[in-house]
Amino acid sequence: MREDSSIDKKNFEADKPDQKGAAVKFPPPAIFAGLILLGVGLQYLWPVAMGVPESLEFVGVFIMLFGLAIAVLVNNSFKRVGTAIEPWKPTTKILTTGFYAWSRNPIYIGFCMINIGIGISSNNFWIFISFIPAAVLLYYVAIAKEEAYLEDKFGEEYIAYKAEVRRWI
């Protein structure tokens, strides 16, 4: 009988297929959408305009479309390499090129840009600043779990990536 059965248990667990992913229970886009709706409600109850001239509201639309484009391109990158974008599904590969060469969370940056753009284009201060609580919530709901999962699953490969690339920008 071996004294250190934890080694056997660890090796056994490493051989099991990954079926749970990062165990994120709440879809991150829903955080951003929920805060947009909260911003609409706050604007109704306590209107705070940002003073954006109508002639510059198109800037908000551009920012929103740019954020949406980032989300779509990142989604396509996940499909191209054959790994799941949903944080509750297993990750089979770490993306380190394209947007992921600049940020560990480019899709979340895209979501932030969508909220910022909608806030500017609708001249709604509450929606504009909604990316701040969204980013904080996102850290606790998804990012911390995702990073722990990826570090556990990919080890030194992910740790080296984390050392080179910032979480946001």
Question: Which architecture of the domain at 58-169 per CATH?
Answer: Up-down Bundle
Radius of gyration: 20 Å
How many helices? The count is 7
The sequence of SSEs as H and E is HHHHHHH
> Could you estimate the helical fraction of the residues in percent?
55-70%
Task: Give the total of beta strands.
Answer: 0
> Per CATH, what is the topology of the domain at 58-169?
Four Helix Bundle (Hemerythrin (Met), subunit A)
User: Which sheet architecture does the biggest sheet show?
Assistant: none
Structural class: mainly alpha
Basic shape: elongated
Which CATH class of the domain at 58-169 applies here?
Answer: Mainly Alpha
Strand residue content:
under 5%
Mean pLDDT across the residues is: 90
Query: Which spans of ≥5 residues are poorly predicted at pLDDT below 50?
Result: 1-16
